[in-house]
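Q: My labmate handed me this sequence with no annotations at all. I'd like to see what the chain might look like in three dimensions before we decide whether it's worth expressing. Could you predict it?
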Amino acid sequence: MNYYEILGVESTATAEEIKEAYRNKAKELHPDTLPRDVNETVRKLAEEKFKELNHAYEILSDADKKREYDAELSNLQRANLMKKIRDFFNNGQLSDAVECAKRLYVLLPEDAECCDIYAEVLQELAIALEETKTAENLTQAKEYLTTALEVVKSAEIKNQITANLELLKSRTGTTGGRERREGETQTIKITTERAFQMLRGGEAGIRAWNQFRAMENYIPSLEGVDLSGQILINANLSGANLKNSKFIKAVFREVNFSNSNLTECDFTGTEFTNANFNNADIESANLTSVFCYASSFANANLQNAILNQSKWFVVFGGTNKSGCFESGYLITDFQGANLSGASVIGASLRECNLEGATLTRTNFSNADLTGANLKNTTIVDTDFKGTDLSKADLTGANAYYFAFHDGNTKINETKGID
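A: Here is what I predict for the chain of 418 residues:
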C-alpha cells in the first residue's frame, strides 16, 4: 500500500483532508484502544500499523517530502502500468490494454510517451474491431481512432492513425458524421495523399493499406510518390501505378510489386527480401547498388534499367532442425525477364536464375555471373567483357558468339559454349 492508501485518501487530497484522515485513522488504530489482555502478537501488529500511519502522515504533511514522494510514486505507477499494458497487449487482451493505457494517460497527461502509448493501443483495438466488419464495431473503431488523434503526440503515429481513420470513413461512407444509408452509392475514394499516408504509416498503416486492397477493386495512382528510407513489410502494391517514384535506400520485405508500373523509378541503395516483381514494368528504372535476395523478377520488363554494382544473392549457413550444418544461396529469379539494353556493370548475380531471359545489348561487364543459370537466353550484342561466367550454364542460349568478350572474361567450367 502507498501512503495515500494507508491514510485512505486520494492522491489529489488537500492538506486539510490528509490531516483529517490521519486524525480519524489514529483514533482507530492507536494501540491504547486495544483491551489490556489482548494477545501480544496482535498488540505488536497494531503498534506497527500505527507507526506506518505516523510515517505516512509525516511524509504527506510536509510539502517538500510529499512532492518528492509523489514523483517516486508516479514513476512506480508508470512502470507498473506500462508492464501491465505490455502484458495485456502481448496476450491479445486489447480491451484490458486500453483500460490500463487510459489510466496511465490520466495519471500523466503531459507525458508524451504515455500519450502515444494510449493512442497506439486505441488504434490496435480499432483495427481489430474493423476486421469484424459489423456496423457496431466499425462505429466503435471510429470513436477509438478519434480519441487516439486527440491524445497522440508523435507525428509519425498521428499519420498512421489519420490514415486508418480516413480508410475507415471511406469504407463506412461517413461524410460529415453521416453513415451511408442502405442502397446509397459509395462516392468516397482513397486519394493518392491518403494512400501515401498509409504507406508511410508503419505497420499499422501497411495493415490499413492491405485491408483497403482486399476490400476495394480500384487502386489510387501512386505516380511520383517518395518512399525513400521507408521500411515496408508485407505491403500489397500489385498492379499499382508507381511510375517515376523514389524508393532510395528503402527496405522492402515480402512486398508484392507484381504487374505494377515501376518505370523510371529510383531504387538506389534499396534492400529487397522475398519481394515479388513478377510481370512488373521496371523499364528505365535505377536499381544501382540494390541488395536483393530470395526475390522474383520473372517475366519482368527491365529494359534499359540500371543495375550497376547491385547484389542479387546472399549466402546463408546454419544448423537445420536435424542439427546438421547446411549452407547455400538465396538468389533472385529473373526467369523470362527482358533485360535488353540494361546496364548490369559490376553487379553480383552469382547462382541467379536468368533462364529464358532476353539479354539483347545488356551490359554485364565486370559482373559476377558465377554459377548463374543462363539457359535458353537470347544473347545479341551482350557485353561480357571482364564478366565471371565460371560454372554458369548457357545451354540452349541462342548464340554465345554474338556477345562481346575480352581476356578478362572467365569461362572456367562454363556449360553450353563448347
